[in-house]
Amino acid sequence: MNLEEKPVKPHGRHIIDLAPPQERAFLIAVEGQENHGWPAQDSLEELASLARTAGAEVVGAEWQQRRHPDPDTYIGAGKARELLAAKLETGFTLLIADDELSPTQQRGLEEVLNVKVIDRSRLILDIFALHARTHEGRLQVELAQLEYQLPRLTRLWTHLSRTGGGIGTRGPGESQLETDRRLIRDRISAMKARVEQVRRNRETGARSRTAGSAPTVAIVGYTNAGKSTLLNSLVGSEEVLAEDRLFATLDPTSRRVRLPSGAQAIVTDTVGFIHKLPHQLVDAFRATLEEVSRADLLLEVVDASDPHWLEHRATVQEVLEELGAAGKPRLVVANKVDRASQAGLAIEGALLVSAVTGLGVERLLERLEGELQRQGSPVDLELPYHVVGEVEALRARYGFQLVYGDAMLRITGFAPAEVASELKKLKRRSIGRVL
Known about the structure:
β1 (24-31), α1 and β2 form a beta-alpha-beta unit. The termini are far apart. The strands form 3 sheets. Strands 6-7-5-8-9-10 form a 6-stranded mixed sheet, with helices on both faces. A 4-stranded parallel sheet has the order 2-1-3-4, with helices on both faces. Strands 11-13-12 form a 3-stranded antiparallel sheet. 43% of the residues lie in helices and 17% in strands. α5 packs antiparallel against α7 (176-211) and α7 (176-211) packs parallel to α10 (286-294). Residues 155-173 have low confidence and may be disordered. The protein contains 14 helices and 13 strands. By secondary structure, it is α/β, with parallel strands linked by helices. The protein folds into 3 domains: 24-128, Rossmann fold; 213-373, 3-Layer(aba) Sandwich (Rossmann fold), CATH 3.40.50.300; 376-434.
């Protein structure tokens, strides 16, 4: 029997895309009596930016006016059922609430809509995890995530809890819920110890930097206000990652900046603040944010092109108060003036700067040096020329004025109290040498 030869099919290669599909996010918010200057619609616009930063596609949003969020479903059972129609229309697979949800509220929404539900805090934590690049940053993000997850374990393991009794639940041992709680508490304790070590290392590093006696400046501001770009502009090179997105930089970066007189200051770029910043992040990043508390001067950067700059400043002030740094000397910079409206250009007492184009940066350096000098003690001394080396070494760090006269060096300006004292001692020693 003749068998017909079947054609041999060539082996083809099919590329399998293992990347998870982009999540389609629907946003919800409740507008209560106290919105602190943030209407729900404006807050949802920022939430949409956060969702896109995390990689989601925003397909819709709704908000509701209520005296207080519903304790069971956040937006109320009726409104939650109405979202089923929006789900059919948009096909959303992720629901994001603008406020932090309780486990009960999260479970209530999931039961009605049968989709994953997260809140603003969880979304911000996810973005921080996405952008944490250093070991220190990842430690602090993991600690914040664990502290966020611990009170929500009940929702995850209700089907395994032994509290209900019945067949299969009797006998010695822990329930899955109890086991997970214990494991997470143990992990939190370990992470806190490691973050505390980070804090001690940072404190040691700060002491070593201040041992060089250079004044320190911390750049603070709302996320995406242009802090990293401004640091690059002050340094004169691309030292720090600067991108037009929320929380592009999490890890603080310190660089030496040369001031107009030739003196130097250490300027640190810090993590940006945001409306409704999760308290877990403030606690976990406290070791990093202590750079703000240690600084001699705060450089507050405001995005003058953002119509919500006033609310942003209020948020920054709240976080600084929580850190105990609200009363520190401060220089306000209105950034992005090349794109700003007239309202943004009217920020009281602010220097107008465009970190991208360099507009106003030289003037900023002059003001920065002046503010640092004014924090010191006034100095007006004459010293002999044989101590010029010691004087020049001090001037390189502090920037006081030095005039070379015919017979003596004339020092004027401001210097930190300990440096002013050192200059006076130097004068006494120099007089002793002459005598």
